[in-house]
Specification:
The complex is a heterodimer of chains A (210) and B (392).
Chain A (H helix, E strand, L loop, with lengths): L4 E6 L2 H13 L15 E3 L5 E6 L1 H9 L5 E5 H7 L4 E6 L5 E8 L9 E5 L2 H11 L3 E5 L6 H5 L4 E6 L3 H5 L2 E10 L1 E6 H6 L1 H15 L1
Parallel strand pairs in A: 1-3, 1-4, 7-8, 7-9
Antiparallel strand pairs in A: 2-3, 4-11, 5-11, 6-9, 6-10
Helix pairs in contact in A: 2-3
Chain B lengths: L17 H20 L3 E2 L5 E3 H5 L4 H6 L1 E4 L6 E4 L4 H12 L5 E8 L15 E8 L4 H17 L5 E7 H11 L3 H12 L3 H11 L3 H9 L4 E2 L2 H9 L4 H20 L4 E5 L12 E7 L4 E8 L13 E7 H7 L9 E3 L8 H14 L2 E3 L10 E6 L2 E6 L4
Parallel strand pairs in B: 1-5, 7-9, 13-14, 13-15
Antiparallel strand pairs in B: 2-4, 3-4, 5-6, 6-12, 7-10, 8-9, 10-11, 11-12, 15-16
Helix pairs in contact in B: 1-5, 5-11, 8-9
Chain lengths: 210, 392
């Protein structure tokens, strides 16, 4: 028997629910309820396809190394991961948001060299390098909004969906960096060596999202 | 450095221990024997040379990968080779300078300052073959065939061969007349097959619609042989591209007849080595994990900087990676322990040991039983004999 195709999905109900509903549209259903299980690998109603539930950044890593053949991850994660080893053939058009620069509404006069707090270190570095601005980056893992409020950083680079969290902390969105949505990624070697198995799945997803 | 850290090796640098090293060396010899029987002459390029000659015509990627040191004799920069192909091209163009086709092969360790990926070795052991002075499809057919036969010579099963041609993208991108920055953006998008973004960027660039639609379609031109026919119809107004496709079709048909049981995959947007490749590019993926163990392609202009533009095509095999994918272990010879023992003259004992070694036994003169020994040398009933070792 041929090895199963592995599709890696981003965990957390915010990402998982729309990904699973997209899969349901093309007739792929997990055989058990993912949200109530502690397992990480799930069989589906398609005999040759299984799902793997990972953190976003790990989706990129598992697909890069070919452990997973396919993956669904936001392009914020892909831009930050920066690895090669996979194709990004489809924009699945779900989980749309933006990466933006934000700061205090009344930030006053700032020094020429800013401190930027973010979890997207690479995206922030690239953005400011292209702007020609020298900044210091502080890597944080959560609660970015706190950084400008407490004086840890002057501004933040973060995901903005509705802007409510920013507003609640006295912050305002300032500069747009990039549009985010979930992408389908495919390991390069998997596509080359298992094209006949993967192509129908990619085409079905393409139809379902167009 | 703490004493416990003294054994630590740098990232991507590895020891190859006896069992693996034996396998690797046997594979290396088989590959070189194979090359020899195809008329490829063995050369030994130097470990280091001046950076200028190492990097000309190869592009930025190799520059980043090359370790650099100052030559205290000349004051010039030297590089430790990250790839042997430019060195062999230099030998052909300058050191040998023979008329007609020249076939060269080599093996050795390269050094990468940055690994290809997180898990790759920074000291890849490469075995490769290059054919110079042949610009026709026959040369490419020969090189791809040699790659397949070489992998088979080391008992590789389940080989997938990928074929592409970088000159198709190059032709299209030159038609666009875009600046370098936009070209780089398009290159990145095509290489990632990021179709949606590619379409957006192309419409922003306001290219001629026919040209834009060809560029958008390019990443999708991958799959089995039917892709070639599909591409022929798409590029019907572009004789230059049709010529490249016909070249690929000709090679494919010949390969099919030669290797009926191998799977071929085509990708016209595979742009590996775009900086120096000028035509067909190919790679071999083997084993369950589909590791890319051998890669190559045509690079007709590299010799130009050494004073001689010649047709050139070739490939190299990454031996450390190949050894991981191939399970077959060479059969270890019978091992004999011959500790000094009484009973006969040293001369007769020595003669016996020599004859054993000639017959292919491995004989060592000190060790402990049972160890990994199959036999023990003893003098019994007036003659030297091999007594089987009880493994318990």
């Amino acid at each position: 028997m041929k090895e199963q195709i592995t599709l890696a999905l981003t965990k957390g109900s915010r990402a998982l629910v729309p990904s699973l509903s997209l899969l349901a549209d093309i007739g792929v259903e997990p055989l058990e309820d993912i949200s109530s299980s502690r397992k990480l690998v799930f069989p589906t109603n398609q005999e040759n396809l299984r799902l793997m539930i990972l953190r976003g950044m790990d989706v990129a890593t598992y697909v890069e190394h070919g452990i997973a053949d396919l993956g669904m991850a936001g392009n914020d994660v892909l831009l930050e991961h920066g690895g090669g080893g996979y194709y990004e053939p489809l924009d699945l058009g779900i989980l749309k948001c933006q990466v933006m620069v934000a700061g205090l509404a009344d930030e006053g006069v700032l020094p020429p060299r800013l401190r930027i707090a973010t979890k997207f270190v690479n995206i922030a570095k690239r953005y400011y390098a292209e702007k020609g601005a020298q900044v210091d980056i502080i890597k944080l893992y959560g609660a970015m909004e706190l950084a400008p409020v407490t004086g840890l950083a002057h501004r933040i680079v973060d995901i903005v969906e509705t802007g409510d969290t920013l507003k609640a902390n006295g912050l305002v969105p300032m500069d747009f960096i990039v549009d985010i949505s979930t992408r389908l990624i495919v390991n390069k070697i998997s596509l080359k060596t298992r094209f006949a198995e993967l192509q129908p799945l990619i085409e079905a997803l393409e139809k379902a999202t167009s | 450095m703490d004493i416990v850290d003294r054994w630590l090796l740098p990232d991507g640098i590895e020891d190859i221990l006896p069992e693996e090293a034996r396998k690797l060396e046997l594979m290396r010899r088989k590959l070189l024997d194979q090359f020899d029987s195809w008329g490829y002459e063995y050369v030994i390029p130097p470990m280091v040379e001046f950076l200028d000659s190492l990097l000309t015509g190869t592009g930025h990627d190799l520059d980043l990968k090359t370790f650099k040191v100052t030559d205290l004799v000349s004051g010039r920069m030297m590089g430790i080779r990250a790839d042997m192909t430019p060195q062999v091209a230099r030998m052909d163009a300058h050191s040998l300078n023979r008329p007609g086709p020249v076939r060269l092969c080599y093996s050795g360790t390269a050094l990468h300052s940055q690994a290809d990926n997180m898990l790759a070795s920074r000291t890849p052991i490469k075995v490769g073959a290059e054919l110079f002075g042949d610009t026709g499809p026959g040369g490419d057919l020969e090189i791809v065939s040699l790659m397949i036969e070489s992998l088979r010579a080391v008992q590789v099963e389940a080989i997938n061969i990928e074929l592409g041609d970088v000159s198709i993208f190059r032709y299209l991108i030159e038609l666009t007349d875009l600046d370098q920055r936009s070209q780089d953006v398009l290159f990145g998008l095509v290489q990632r097959k990021a179709m949606a973004e590619l379409a957006t960027v192309l419409s922003d660039l306001e290219l001629e619609p026919g040209l834009a639609s060809m560029l958008v379609a390019l990443p999708g031109l991958c799959g089995d042989e039917s892709v070639l026919e599909k591409s022929r119809q798409m590029f019907t107004d572009h004789p230059q591209i049709l010529a490249r496709l016909d070249n690929l079709i000709w090679i494919t048909q010949a390969l099919r007849e030669r290797f009926a049981d191998i799977e071929f995959y085509y990708d016209l947007s595979e742009l590996r080595g775009y900086n120096y490749h000028t035509g067909i590019v190919f790679a071999a993926y083997v084993g369950k994990s589909g590791a890319a163990v051998a890669k190559g392609g045509r690079y007709d202009h590299v010799g130009e900087v050494f004073g001689r533009a010649r047709g050139a095509t070739g490939f190299d095999i990454q031996l450390n990676q190949l050894a991981r994918e191939v399970g077959v272990m060479p059969i270890a010879p019978m091992r004999v322990l011959a500790t000094p023992n009484e009973g006969a003259t040293e001369a007769s004992r020595w003669q016996f040991i020599r004859s054993l070694r000639e017959q292919g036994y491995t004989v060592v003169e000190s060790g402990e039983l049972p160890g990994s020994f199959d036999f023990e040398l003893v003098f019994q009933d007036t003659e030297w004999q091999l007594r089987p070792v009880d493994p318990s």
